[in-house]
Amino acid sequence: MCGIIGIINHEEVIGDLLFGLSALQHRGQSSCGIVTFEKLFHLHKGLGNISQVFTQQEVAKLKGNIGLGHVRYATQGGDDLINAQPYSINYPFGIAMIHNGNILNFKELRDTLYKEHHILLETSNDLELILYTFASELRKKDLMNLSVDDIFDSVSETQQKVLGAYAAITMIANRGILAFNDPNGIRPLVFGKKETASGTTYAFASESSCFDYLEYEVISNLAPGEAIFIDTNNTVHRKICHSGKPAFCIFEYIYFAREDSIMHDKLVANERIAMGKILAKRVKAAGLKPDVIVDVPSSAYFFATSLADELGVQYIRGLAKNNHIGRSFIMSNQKDRETTAKLKLNPITSFLKGKKVALVDDSIVRGTTSKNLIGLLKRAGAKEIYFISAAPPIQHPCMYGIDMAISSELIGRNTVADIESYLEVDALIYQSIDDLKELYKNEHFCYACFDGVYPVANSKKYIDEIESERISSSKNGC
User: Which CATH superfamily is domain 2-247 in?
Assistant: First the structure.
């Protein structure tokens, strides 16, 4: 999972890019980068977060009124600097690109690019596949008389050849800025604008909360398979290029997105409140009567408070959070995840001692972080501990850009009794997949990590390849 932003302005764009990218830092902390354009591409990227990578000296070099920004955590390829985005090529025109997502047919596309176009990939980042596939399609056009239809045709061909989940933003030098997503619209991408004294500024970003900080108005989310091109005359062109069945990632609502973001006309906080409410019947059916309900900060807050309201049980903030520690879920390896989790939270003992505590988290993936949290509550003197997951059991790996481990590491593949024993809890409650689907019965989401139904054609064909790559990366320390 990554955070992306692209802006076309009438003035220097670097200030808005940095500010907007900071609002997306929760989506990736392993590396970041920005590219702008003024006569040529000005690029800077590095390992770490925004404050570590962008010094005043580097920022001063990023000239131009159009630019792209990216924050990354690795799901495909390692954490090496060479895999940091953005990427750029010089022909045709000069193209720079960023993306959020994961490509399934990596090896097939890599071989095709080499055999048919003599392109040798330099990195293990799947952005190169999208970039070179799009560029190869663009080269087939009459470059002296390139039209908007030519650009959209190239997007359509790219969408048909590149299988997976992706939201991409592209600069075409001296032509404009282009955004497009995969045919199923799995990953989020928002289109917005701001009226200024110099004229209308347009932007694309992973989440609407980014636009709140920049004082942009949200125009819309990109539809599945849609492309939007804004030319150098500031004219907006939109087209559904190649679409399939909508399958927006439900995990954006459960964990990844900020609670103040609006995705497909839904406030994330409201969705978590609704999910917390339907959790209540699971707790009641189990006959559990906690004294207090405690959330795992910060993504579980709305699940926990709405659950407490439904049960008539006191909600209390029983875990103090160190806000200077990153999100443990998106650390690149298990050791870092465990260390981050230990440093991030500290139990407030006087609130927990002698109490039957219902601990609410957004999900359970590997179970090691959950086990550590339960250990904190036990040392704080909790009488009984009930662990409540706002997500159903995660039984299948995500192939679409969320690092949900390999199949063998997913604790949700075990029985509830076995998981309770491993976690050493008095009870474990999962959200019901049926209840979750009933909540969204008139809408189309991707639930693949819960039910194994992958929306992209032939996804299961590529699972073994992707898991092998992840195992290899893990062994190499990535």
Answer: Aminohydrolase, N-terminal nucleophile (Ntn) domain (3.60.20.10)
